[in-house]
Amino acid sequence: MDWWRALGIVIAGGLVLAVAAFVVTSQGAGSCKVLGGPGIHVVSCPGFDAWTGQPHSLTVEYNEVPGIQEARPPTTDDLPAEVQGRLAISLPIGFTVGLFVSAGVLVVTRLRRDTPPQATA
Question: Do 30 and 83 form a contact (C-beta atoms < 8 A)?
Fold first, then answer.
C-alpha cells in the first residue's frame, strides 16, 4: 500500500470518528423555539460547541425596528436541563483519537498480511 493511500485512509477515519463522536455525545441538546417578529434574530440555539464540547444556551438578538422596538443587548437564556453538567466530544479530540485508531487498524492489518504462515508439524 502506498503512503498517500494510507494517509488518506487514516485522515478519513479520523474525520468519520470525529463527526460520529460529536453527533452521538451532543444528542438531546434541546430545541430552538423563539416566538417573535421583525427585528428578532436567533444567534445560537441550545447545544454544544463543536470545537470545545462546552454546552451553550439560546441567545437572541433584538435589532431596532423603527416605530416598533428599540435595539437592545442580546439576551441569553439559562442552560437547558438536558445539557447542564454534560460535555460533548469535541471535533479536535475525536479527530485525534480517530487518527490513532485508524493508524492502529492499518498497522495491525498490514502486520497480519505480511506475516508468513507458520508450518504445522
Answer: yes
In angstroms, the CA 121 to CA 119 distance is 6
Quote the Cα angle for 110-115-117, to 5°.
140
What's the rounded Cα separation, in Å, for the pair 42 and 76? 10
- Phi and psi of 63, rounded to 5°? -90, 160
Interior angle at CA 19, CA 13 and CA 22, nearest 5: 135
Q: Which amino acid type is present at position 103?
A: A
Q: Are 30 and 55 in contact (CB under 8 A)?
A: no
Q: Which amino acid is at 3?
A: W
Structure confidence by residue, pLDDT tens digits, 6-52:
899 999 999 999 999 999 998 877 677 766 677 777 777 888 999 99
